[in-house]
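Batch manifest, entry 17 of 40.
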Amino acid sequence: MKVYLVGGAVRDKLLKRTIKECDYVVVGSTPSELISLGYQQVGNDFPVFLHPITKDEYALARTERKSGQGYTGFICDFTPTVTLEEDLVRRDLTVNAMAEDENGNIIDPFNGKADLDNKLLRHVSDAFSEDPLRILRVARFAARYHYLGFSIAAETMLLMQEMVAQGEINTLTKERIWLEIEKSLEDGAINVFTDVLAEINALPIILPPLTNHWSAQHSQQLAMLLTNLDGENQQLIAFCLWLKEIKPTEIKALSESLRLPNNYIDALNLFTTFYPTFKRNLATEEQVLALFNQADVWRRPERLNLFIETFSVLSKEHAAFAKKLKNAAKKATMVDVQVIIKQGFKGAEIKQQLDIARHTAIAEEFA
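Output type: structure tokens
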């Protein structure tokens, strides 16, 4: 039995990037042997085990044979005779098809190190085309390593374009599409991810509402905005900036096609509704109050704060306008409904007086 560090950990170690997780391949072993050594098997059809102490993933070396459509239609062979090279050849990119033995020696049968040096993302073999999920993974890697100057090899771009034309990408589940998008948002270059999909004609399939709004100019503008992001709301803000040109009426279809989390839906609904209203840094008291009401700043101030934080990223002028929104919100939320009630107003009159008082507070900033 031999154990090798494989995949992303080897790649990122060579790139001198922080290694987030370590995956290992075990050659010449069986499930029963690993279980006897204390490893915990995860999944019955997939030979992956958790180390008894580190909880790192250890997978038996395996080969795969296409048996159906999509990224799940494979038959695995993980007998002890499967070699390390047979395991590595089934991987997506050459930079992900390297291994390291226990002595630190790099096993690189597909010249992944050379592609790392040349900053190229290249598919290992024609078996790449059997798994449509790899299209999104390559787009994500292009986004992740864009800051290092990486690009996708021309032959890999052509192969992905052919896969899209053949319809394999249509078999991807909503959950997997969103997962790859979310990871690209986290990596901070969702514009590069989108550029790749646009170039291989996958954007109308993966993100139809974005198709008519995406352009090289939009991509460049977004890239500049993303460099200014920081903090815990970074992904949500990037998401809203990415899709700021779509219409609020398109969000329902988008959320259904991707099964977006509620916080992403709420943030995008608010931003796409009011960004067109305020993008020229002009507003009436009524428009500002409409924003406050839809954000429900009275009970959920964090929703308006996210809008303000996102709007501020657009430019210095927008940041100044957002500051006025923040000041107006602070004053409007200080209006005390109990004071109105004590003045003798009842029923619908309370709501009317409350709106008047809030208008007055907003006018101090926007009159």
